[in-house]
Write a structure and sequence with these properties.
CATH class of the largest domain: Alpha Beta
CATH superfamily of the largest domain: P-loop containing nucleotide triphosphate hydrolases
Mean pLDDT: 80
Strand order of the largest sheet: 3-1-12-11-8-9
Pfam family, one: FHA
Domain Sigma-54 factor interaction: 323-551
Bound molecules: adenosine-5'-triphosphate
CATH architecture of the largest domain: 3-Layer(aba) Sandwich
Radius of gyration: 38 Å
GO molecular function, one term: ATP binding
Largest sheet: 6 strands, antiparallel
Keywords: ATP-binding, DNA-binding, Nucleotide-binding, Transcription, Transcription regulation
Number of strands: 27
Protein name: Response regulator of zinc sigma-54-dependent two-component system
Structural class: alpha/beta
CATH topology of the largest domain: Rossmann fold
Oligomer: single chain
Number of domains: 5
Shape: elongated
Distance between the termini: 99 Å
Number of helices: 21
Length: 657
């Protein structure tokens, strides 16, 4: 004997349920695990059970606050008769035995699971009510098929929606496009989007727009869909279960779908219709649109975040104006950058370590026609020579052990933009040959690939080495050098423009002040000390000295002794030309100065590479590579740390070694 439970008072989900004698017992309670979830404070988590036994329906009470049938408290269990009302707290459910319009049995379709079981359709919907056969639209295929297949016109509409949806630029456009597609394809009267995120700029969108003011989207359905995380498909007997004030009372059927992509639902999609119930196909169509909408909205949001991040980074990429200094040397440098930037040619930036070569490369990109394209920076000295080729040109999955997927090389990543090859002088001869081919406009082949590829990349290279000298000694390819130095820019070392020290110091001081939320100042003595120093580490060393003094100082006023500069001959008055510091190596050959600095740092730190790298203001990898090269020249680590003056490396003059 079939039966039906219908809500008459209070709140529960679902609000009506068909019972089958062969189905599972129906449980009632506050917990979401129950077949009927009671929204009532007085209900226990599992409060009662309705079950079929000996040809009759019964109710068994488990609740603390009791269950009543037509006013009588249930002790243990009692049999239910037609028309009786089961009351738990404020919830009143009427039982009707053998309802007059029994649901039409549908074979195989999960939407017609034993009707008193928790129903989850193929689309994972909680179906509250079967669609009576007389509500099928004329011309619909039999329910068996209807439940399973979208028709050609629906699939066409879906494809049309998807094709158009990828063009949508904003979440609002995409949402209205989806709502319109639903209204056009189904017989829905109203479709709405309701955000669950309080910070969503478009919290509610209703189509047609004329209905937006008059029809609120059901809060009850929203809560239900959000809590259950799946489609709620309601065909309520509205007059019975909804007060006339309820927003759904004007409709015959309603669907509410939680929109979620990778996490919790962030919105719900409401679709209401009048006259008759939605068909199974309607629900499937709406679910397909909802799924696409949810993912589309997430993609648009991610894109927005990336665009904001990108524009933030662009604003932080320096232009020529961000190169500080009013000296003739820096004015000339800025002019050269502005002249070179728009040209399509390769630029070779030369200068000592820390003098600002990377800053120049960034400014070249920022002022070029490729500014909208990517800027990819690679430090050729920091990548092991064996890996460099794969890094630059990419590799295919399986090209070598550890290559578990295709990897686009830096050239590919920089397509239509700029590739900045820092420390280009450190490239192996083999890599130089490959680089030459790409610069000559020829194709390259990723490691392990069978085909060649071409990219449109402008190369800006930088080096602190004397590449002409290296080319003469055969260490660097002459033909590559010619290609690289179509435009040459020399970045002057700081000792050639000491008049910029006060401005640079003020700039770095302002930066560190804003980072530390303090207001640092330099005393006159401190400024004199800065101006008297010869800065072998150039602007980078100046910056590091100021930052280190600031963060280590308890006071906002930084005096000379706060500056971590040793062996400086302090002069009485600031000078235009710097004094020679006693800790300078005798030779001014930049390669020799670097060797001397490495030797000194290694000795000072007792051979600790990490500490030495910190002192030298370079990465550990860079120092390792440089140590390796020194070793190739016959200067090993022991010699560096123990010998006073290894192989032509000048002995530091100061006494702290
Ligand atoms: N004229 C300048 N104005 C402002 N900041 C500068 C200037 N020159 C250099 N700097 C700063 O000094 C630091 C070192 O600069 P950069 O990294 O460009 O030097 P580099 O010559 O590329 O060094 P390396 O050869 O070691 O890579 C950076 O923090 C940079 O912002």
């Amino acid at each position: 004997m079939r039966a039906r439970l219908t809500l008459e008072g209070g709140d529960c989900v679902p609000s009506s349920l068909d019972l089958s004698p062969t189905g599972q017992p129906v449980t009632l309670g506050r917990s979401r695990d129950n077949t009927i979830v009671l929204r009532d404070e007085l209900a226990s988590r599992l409060h009662a059970k309705i079950y079929f036994e000996d040809g009759r329906w019964h109710v068994r009470d488990f609740g603390l606050n009791g269950t009543r049938v037509d006013g009588q408290r249930v002790n243990g269990s009692i049999e239910l008769a037609d028309g009786q009302r089961v009351r738990i707290g404020e919830v009143v459910l009427k039982i009707v035995l053998e309802p007059k319009t029994p649901p039409r049995p549908v074979k195989d379709a999960p939407a017609t699971m034993p009707v008193n079981a928790k129903t989850e359709g193929p689309h994972n919907a909680t179906k509250v009510h079967e669609i009576p056969p007389e509500r099928q639209a004329p011309g619909d295929p039999p329910p068996e098929q209807a439940a399973k297949q979208l028709r050609v016109d629906e699939l066409t509409a879906l494809c049309k929606f998807m094709t158009g949806a990828v063009e949508a630029k904003t979440p609002h456009d995409l949402t209205t496009f989806a709502l319109r597609a639903i209204l056009n394809q189904t017989a829905a009267k109203l479709a709405g989007y309701l955000s669950l995120d309080p910070e969503d700029p478009g919290p509610k969108i209703v189509m047609p727009e004329s209905a937006a003011i008059d029809v609120p989207l059901s809060r009850r359905l929203t809560v239900q869909a959000q809590a259950q995380g799946k489609t709620i498909w309601l065909f309520p007997e509205l007059s019975a279960s909804h007060p006339p004030t309820d927003s759904l009372s004007a409709f015959a059927d309603a669907i509410c779908i939680p929109l979620k992509a990778s996490g919790e639902p962030f919105a719900t999609l409401h679709v209401y219709r009048s006259g008759r119930a939605f068909s199974e196909r309607d629900v499937r169509f709406i679910e397909a649109v909802a799924g696409f909408l949810a993912h589309g909205l997430e993609i648009l949001r991610t894109r927005r975040t990336l665009e904001a991040e990108n524009s933030r980074l662009r604003t932080h990429t320096p232009a020529a104006d961000d190169i500080i200094g009013g000296s003739n040397a820096v004015i000339l440098l800025r002019q050269q950058i502005l002249r070179a930037a728009p040209q399509p040619f390769t630029v070779l930036v030369q200068g000592e370590s820390g003098s600002g070569k990377e800053l120049v490369a960034l400014a070249l990109h920022r002022n070029s026609r490729r500014t909208e394209g990517p800027l990819v920076v690679v430090n050729c000295a920091a990548i092991a020579p064996t890996l460099l080729e794969a890094e630059l040109f990419g590799y295919k999955k399986g090209a070598f052990s550890g290559a578990d997927r295709d990897h686009p090389g830096l050239f590919q990543q920089a397509d239509e933009g700029t590739l900045f090859l820092d420390e280009v002088g450190e490239l192996s001869l083999e890599c130089q040959a490959k680089l030459l081919r790409v610069i000559e406009g020829k194709a390259f082949r990723p490691v392990g690939a069978t085909g060649d590829m071409k990219v449109d990349v402008r190369i800006v290279a930088a080096t602190h080495r004397d590449l002409d000298k290296d080319a003469k000694s055969g260490r660097f390819r002459q033909d590559l050098l010619f290609r690289l130095k179509v435009i040459q820019i020399r970045v002057p070392p700081l000792r050639e423009h000491p008049e910029d020290i006060p401005e640079l110091a003020a700039f770095f001081l302002a930066k560190v002040s804003s980072e530390c939320r303090r207001n640092f100042k330099l005393t006159a003595a401190a400024m004199r000390k800065l101006q008297a120093h010869t800065w072998p580490g150039n602007v980078r060393q100046l910056r590091a000295a100021i930052e280190s003094a600031a963060v280590m100082s308890e006071s906002d006023t930084l005096d000379a002794d706060a500056l971590p500069l040793t062996g400086v001959t302090e002069l009485q008055t600031p000078v235009a030309v710097p004094a020679v510091s006693v800790d300078l190596p005798p030779s001014l050959d930049i390669v020799e100065i670097e060797k001397w600095a490495i030797c000194r740092a290694m000795r000072q730190t007792g051979g600790n590479v990490s500490h030495a790298a910190k002192l030298l203001n370079m990465s550990r990898d860079t120092l390792h590579n440089k140590l390796k090269k020194l070793k190739e020249e016959g200067i090993d680590r022991a010699m560096l740390t123990n010998t006073p003056a290894p192989l032509g490396v000048p002995e530091p003059v100061s006494t702290d070694a």
